[in-house]
Amino acid sequence: MRRERLGFGFALAVLSLWCTMEVAVEAAWSLQTPVKLVWHYYKVHNTCDYAEAYIRHQVESFYKYDKTIAPTLLRLLYADCFVDGCDASVLLDGPNSEKTAPQNRGLAGFAFIDKIKTVLEARCPGVVSCADILNLATRDAVHLSGAPSYPVYTGRRDGMTSTKDSVDLPSPSISWEASLAYFRSRGLDLLDMTTLLGAHSMGRTHCSFIVDRLYNFNDTGKPDPSMKASLLAAMRKLCPPKTKKGQPDPLVFLNPASESKYSFTNSYYSKVLTNEAVLGVDQQLLYNEDTKQITEEFAAGFEDFRRSFALSMSRMGNINVLTGKEGEIRKNCRFPNKK
Q1: Which positions are annotated as active-site residues?
Q2: 52 is in an annotated binding site
Q3: 173 C-beta neighbours (distance < 10 Å), count
Q4: pLDDT at 319
Q5: Which reaction is this enzyme known to catalyze (predicted)?
Q6: Residue 28 pLDDT grade (very low, low, confident, very high; cuts 50, 70, 90)
């Protein structure tokens, strides 16, 4: 398979990862082809030289007061890129937009993206896409939480439609086989899947996404036998069985080891190895020999995980992007431009 090379330094970083790993799986070491995006697009085209600096400044200012912005933007970017591609369609408002899909319950970060867009429109009107803002802001936020400052290629344009029927994000209780099939349908591979699930090292989820594991795993009327007894007891205290409509749906930490620190670490993989993953799809990483080996490598080496995360996030940001004359540059991230 033909591979497009990244910058020399970044390629060396990826190569050094695979020199230290013993996992015998076929994995991409570059962005997908064709790569339509450009490194520092707005500076190269002299349309908004300091666009990335403006975004970074806003993220840094906001992060000082609210560290939850890192997992919030990670989830928002995932919800965007894995549906119709990285076109910012998830940001659009509307009675039947992607925001209203059940899978996107609790999605947030929209007001923060609006703030960045307002700043950029004041300085470079009609130039920087909402899709690029979301990708760059996410990179900067997770970097502040401990992730690498991975390369974000730019030049995306914004989609003009958003429908909840297009949202096919899978249940967090799916098998590793179903999860891998889903990632592959987006042009990603087994290493990307195992790496990107590591974003669950921080953030929270609603009890409704794990209640099946706690009380009725696979319709057995019993809890998931793979869940460690101490974690099961702790989660049951926080998440009562769902018995009636309108019942509260509390939030629980995806990685109790991180909790309110919202720091990017490799402790997620250690929790998977000890059967303490909160989400079923995370625990499933032990049920395939390749994903198990990668999990063991990442649990033992934080730098291995960070390097792989840098590449996989860049690859995710390249899914079905709109460029050239496709789409548009929205003036307001919540609405398509008026014709």
Answers
A1: 75
A2: no
A3: 19
A4: 95
A5: 2 a phenolic donor + H2O2 = 2 a phenolic radical donor + 2 H2O
A6: low
35 annotated as a binding-site residue:
no
pLDDT for the residue numbered 34: 60
**143 is an annotated ligand-binding site residue:** no
Residue ranges covered by each domain of the chain: 39-203+254-317
**pTM, two decimal places:** 0.88
Q: Which CATH number fits domain 39-203+254-317: 3.10.290.10, 1.10.520.10, 1.10.8.280, 3.40.50.2000?
A: 1.10.520.10
Is 98 one of the annotated binding-site residues?
yes
d(CA 326, CA 24): 39
Q: Sorting pLDDT into bands at 50, 70 and 90, what band is 21?
A: very low
Cα 45 to Cα 49: distance, rounded to the nearest angstrom: 8
pLDDT tens-digit map of 78-93 = 999 999 999 999 999 9
Cis geometry, peptide bond prior to residue 34 (ω within 30 degrees of 0): yes
